[in-house]
UniProtKB/TrEMBL annotation:
Keywords: DNA-binding
InterPro entries tied to this protein: DNA-bd_dom_put_sf, HTH_17, SinI_DNA-bd, WH-like_DNA-bd_sf
NCBIfam families: excise (TIGR01764)
Keyword Methyltransferase: no
Lineage top rank: taxon: Bacteria
Gene Ontology terms, MF aspect: DNA binding
Signal peptide residues on this chain, from the entry's feature table: none
Protein name per Swiss-Prot or TrEMBL: DNA-binding protein
Sequence ranges assigned to domain Helix-turn-helix in this UniProt record: 7-53
Amino acid sequence: MTEPWSSVDEVAKHLGVAQDSIYRWIEARDLPAHKSGRLWRFKLSEVDEWVRDGGAEGGEKPATKKPPKAKRGLS
């Protein structure tokens, strides 16, 4: 039997965190997620492995800073 897909709400409840944390972890900490249209879907076994491997530990990873754009103007 194949593992069912879970929603953001189900994963948040499974991990005991807010849904906002799930979205942040997808973006900043590479939480294993698959986008289906506008919705994120998860395999709980992948999420559990990510947690065991330390994916949810510590603070947020710093966002990658982009270099500032050069200002145009008269020199």
